[in-house]
Amino acid sequence: xxxxxxxxxxxxxxxxxxxxxxxxxxxxxxxxxxxxxxxxxxxxxxxxxxxxxxxxxxxxxxxxxxxxxxxxxxxxxxxxxxxxxxxxxxxxxxxxxxxxxxxxxxxxxxxxxxxxxxxxxxxxxxxxxxxxxxxxxxxxxxxxxxxxxxxxxxxxxxxxxxxxxxxxxxxxxxxxxxxxxxxxxxxxxxxxxxxxxxxxxxxxxxxxxxxxxxxxxxxxxxxxxxxxxxx
Length: 231
Hints:
This protein is α/β, with parallel strands linked by helices. 38% of the residues lie in helices and 19% in strands. The protein has helices spanning 12-24, 35-44, 61-68, 85-93, 106-119, 157-168, 176-183, 194-206, and strands at 4-8, 28-32, 49-53, 76-80, 98-101, 129-131, 137-140, 145-148, 151-152, 216-219, 223-226.
């Protein structure tokens, strides 16, 4: 069945162009130009992915994303002409899966849609024993063990939780604050830079198993993402 994409964009010509490009690639694309109407449509019939403009009449994109994330993990790509870092950070910290700045190529948007949908496939890395997106990395939440090609990684509990958080949603960008929340659930006042130390140690322990790969990618000014290994 074709994946359904909802485009929430008040520039109607641009929305139509995106819809046409997505339809050529086999998607079912619908456009809405108003934020309140989009919120109603999302509640009634959620699509497989949401392309969400930041500046909208009725209800802006950040408010839509904030409301959506209360109940849904629907993949969201934010699309906007506002490139300030605060907007980018806010969108990602609220749970956007990707961020595209205008002007852009419609072909790039289609490629990003495919990538985010692929990453959104369930990995079940949060419970039980699971492989991260077909990679040789396995994460067993029950025993708090991570294995690469069957060989255990010697991780501390915080390194394990860090890897579990990142690999549980391959490709999704996590800010330092989000990773701190995952590691320090007791609300201790810990510097965000503590994440850098844990990441450094985790990368060092992953490196021998993947000498030609960089599984944990840094996104300057935003955060970190786990990139699936090639099959």
